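Annex B. Sample input.
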Amino acid sequence: LRDSVLELSAEELVEQVIAGLNKACTSVKGTISGLQRQIRDPSEAELWRSRGNALLQVTQQWYPGMTEVEAPDYSRLGDDGLPLSMTVELNPKKHFKDNAKLCFKQASKITKAIEKC
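Annex B, continued. Sample output.
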């Protein structure tokens, strides 16, 4: 390797260094992009927890293929003291409790990502 470097012209050496730097920059940009996707607002984690809790309170009958459900949101109460409702999107293949687990998992991921930062 050392002999091959000595045989390169200054121009070829500069081109190789630039190519290496461009590769490193691309890698760093990818890392930054990935980290930016992980950064979330803490209130987003709370929203996911609220969705999970709301799904655990649903009394409506579940059936395969449901894409959303109205659920009581105990984190927001009306003037009468009763919970307001929220629409929660569902994985149509999963029961309410399984969808709630997914919501809690997403909240946990966001919280862990925030703690890493």
